[in-house]
Amino acid sequence: MKVMQEISKAYIAGIIDGEGCIHGHVGNIHKGYSTGGAIDVRVTVEATSLTMIKTLQEFCDELGVSYSIYIGKMARRSTKPSHIIRITKRECVKNFLKALLPYLQVKRPEAEVVLEWIEKWGMDMRGTNSHKVRNIPTKEQREEFLFRLKELKYVA
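RESULT FIELD:
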């Protein structure tokens, strides 16, 4: 059973490497930020293969990772409809990427940058973790993170 789990992780990592996007962006401006919004991170896969999306869905369910599924824009450019699976909650992004990190090849540097960001700034980067107040990254730190992540997308 353990061997099948590792093969499954390697297969899912291949999907992420080939069809996935590890993305960060500035979210809406929230209380606690005077110079812009919090960083939101997500993992997205858009594919015309519903089987591939269902495989990702099953993997997420096994990990306890929440996700959303949408009809994608590729449907307009193709005879086949596309489907998008998107993981947006930081805890879920963290658990998903940690599970796949040993198997990622192409997207590994992006995953490492996102995991480093989450580790450094905690799960709530808005500084409002229930009743606890956390350090809030500066505008420059947020910009540097986004620059590093974007720069990795252009590395062959």
